[in-house]
Amino acid sequence: MTADRQRNIRLDIQYDGTGYSGWAKQPGLPTIEGALEGVLGRILQQDVRLTVAGRTDAGVHARGQVVNFLTEKDVDPGKLAWSANGMLPDSISISGCKEVSATFDARRSALSRTYSYMVLNRGYNSPFRSRFVWHYPGRVDMVLLREAASLISGEHDFTAFTPTESEHSYFRREILRSGWQRDGDMLIYWVQASGFMRNMVRALVGTMMEVGRGFRTMDSLERLLEGAERSEAGETAPPHGLCLERVEY
Predict the structure, then answer these.
(1) 106 in any annotated domain
(2) 154-157 and 51-52: which strand pairing?
(3) What distance in Å separates the CA atoms of residue 32 and residue 58, rounded to the nearest whole number?
(4) Annotated active-site positions, please?
């Protein structure tokens, strides 16, 4: 049934990014956005255009992604989520669905985003976790890792941590939270900011791991945070260790 007003629907999404070419739709390639819009469009019998809180790259996961879309259909949020979950692949789930105010925008209304990056730090990989962790067998000094993470907190120029060919024109970001924790063989990096640039978290992780191995000094990391070239920073960590954990509003 068609409603007499436009509704704004928020979806909370979880997905395993393995096998997807990232969030954004690309012709002929499997993407999270393409899968979701396709299923929602078939249910609602309309073109659905999603606004997303944070675009994730190929292979990156999400536990707390948020999107919204507009519809004039008389939507029952619970039934919509139930129907969509029955049609979506097992790698994508809608964990929440509700109508929100007309002013809500999943991207522009977000105050911050929190990511985690998981590193399996032991001699052998795990067949049960390999899609979600970076296997890094070398010895890592947690004291150095934590000191490196503390340097990243605050406002800096992150030019060195995003590709040289970039759509960004402003490279300063404020990091609200940055820290490592160890849980057995697992090293987990948590980072929160109002916004991130492409590959930024993965480049930070790759560079901090060099610090933790003793291959890079803390002074070197400090210089990178003043706006150095990308080539001066460390490698970009693999995408599959990264997960968008939540979006704060």
Answers:
(1) no
(2) unpaired
(3) 10
(4) 57
